[in-house]
Amino acid sequence: MLPVTTTWQNWAGTERSHPSLELAPERAEGIVDAIRLARETGTVVKPIGASHSFTAIGATEGIRISLAGLRGLQSADLARSRVTLWAGTHLHELPGILTPLGLALENMGDIDRQTIAGATSTGTHGTGLAFGGLATRITGVTLVDGTGTLRTIDEDHDPELLPAVALGLGALGVLVTVTIQCVPRFLINAVEAPAPLDEVLDEWQERSEAADHFEFFWFPHTRGTRTKTNTRLPLESGRRPLGTASRFLDEEVVNNVLLGAVVGVQSLAPRITPAMNRLIENVSSRRSFTDESYRVFVTRRRVKFREMEYSVPFEAVPDVVRELRTMIERRDHRVSFPVEVRAAAADQLLLSTASGRRSGYVAVHRFIGDRDTDYFRDAEAILAAHDGRPHWGKMHTLDAEQLAARYPGFEKFREVRDRLDPHRVFRNAYLERVLGE
């Protein structure tokens, strides 16, 4: 385990800190040693994955533990379609691990740069009313808690702790391994098509309940959306993928090169944003293809942005989006990035944004070069007013008192925290704000 000193910053470049020491252990024993060192010296520890969160959840002035040395497959239980992964494994590495085993993740978000530990600990999710977030598929973990004890938590060992540690915000310990319930490999038929915003909102419940996975993007200042409807298919249905040229043109040239150029110009001349968004709306086209699930779920995004996302009750989504539309025009915000809308099943994880309720997710974005910050403030007022719960890895301003009223399992989570980290070895300013002391 080699010590490293560096300045940490997140992917978007919006948060940074200066760890006193960075360690990159390659075994669980190295994490145990780091936590014992922290306790002896009175400092704190913060594990870090890919730093893809938009908050300071990974920031620390103490010891930073990089999980880069803990990657790959630890074991596989093919009889139960389960794999145990080292916690630093990146989501984009999983197809290379799972495909030869005939397995796949049940659901994914549209970004795969995160580590499995970071994605599950912050509540990463995809879309689909029959499917929970990635953390709901965790059947067991090993972690080093705040006392320096290496623990196994699964259906046979302290199972009552699993609803907390599966989505633990990095507050309960340093994950060493994560066991994930997978499914057999499958294909997805993807249909992407333009549709009027008011029509999509009127049919939000119907479209979401009829599809395996439904989501839409709405560019502010326009009347239209781009919908994505994904249908799960068995492997024997056969792939009909996008051609190499078509995929490159759409996902690299349009989604990255052209988008980057357009939003860059708009950040310098905000007045042109409504007209540019309407131009993008007018050239939106329909396409359909069938491919391996991970190739459909994931989109490569290289244009940097800031993001706020809230979970709201599923039925509230149409009202929330309409209120956002009214607010944007009334406040004269010039917003070049789209609003993204998804859905997920209810679950029983203590701090899941879908805990105990079917949920809709509304995400607002700004290009990293935009100077206006009032948009997030105004959007958050609407999202929070609808019993919203903020994504733990995305921008928000709520504190422990406000969050406790929104989560039935909040106090139980804090009891688990008292048990696993009684000395607050894993504390940082973000956790103090959202969980309290």
Arithmetic mean pLDDT: 93
Sheet having the most strands: 8 strands, antiparallel
Widest sheet, order of strands:
17-14-16-15-19-20-18-21
Structural class: alpha+beta
Number of helices: 14
Span between termini: 31 Å
Characterize the overall form.
globular
Number of strands: 21
The low-confidence parts are none
What fraction strand? 15-25%
The proportion of residues forming helix, as a percent range, comes to: 25-40%
What is the radius of gyration? 21 Å
Structure description:
- Pfam families: ALO, FAD_binding_4.
- InterPro entries: ALO_C (IPR007173), FAD-bd_PCMH (IPR016166), FAD-bd_PCMH-like_sf (IPR036318), FAD-bd_PCMH_sub1 (IPR016167), FAD-bd_PCMH_sub2 (IPR016169), FAD_lactone_oxidase-like (IPR010031), Oxid_FAD_bind_N (IPR006094), Vanillyl_alc_oxidase_C-sub2 (IPR016171).
- One of its GO terms (molecular function) is L-gulono-1,4-lactone dehydrogenase activity.
- Keywords: Oxidoreductase.
- This is FAD-binding protein.
- With 437 residues, this protein is of the alpha+beta class.
- It is 30% helix and 25% strand.
- The chain is built from 14 helices and 21 strands.
- It has helices spanning 28-41, 94-98, 116-122, 162-165, 197-202, 204-210, 244-268, 273-282, 293-297, 317-330, 374-385, 400-404, 410-420, 429-435; strands at residues 3-4, 8-9, 16-17, 21-23, 45-48, 63-66, 73-77, 82-86, 103-104, 138-144, 150-154, 174-181, 183-184, 187-196, 213-218, 224-233, 287-292, 305-313, 339-344, 359-367, 389-390.
- It has an 8-stranded antiparallel beta sheet with strand order 17-14-16-15-19-20-18-21. A 5-stranded antiparallel beta sheet has the order 7-8-12-10-11. Strands 1-4-6-5 form a 4-stranded mixed beta sheet, with helices on one face.
- Helix 10 runs antiparallel to helix 11.
- The protein is globular.
- The mean pLDDT is 93.
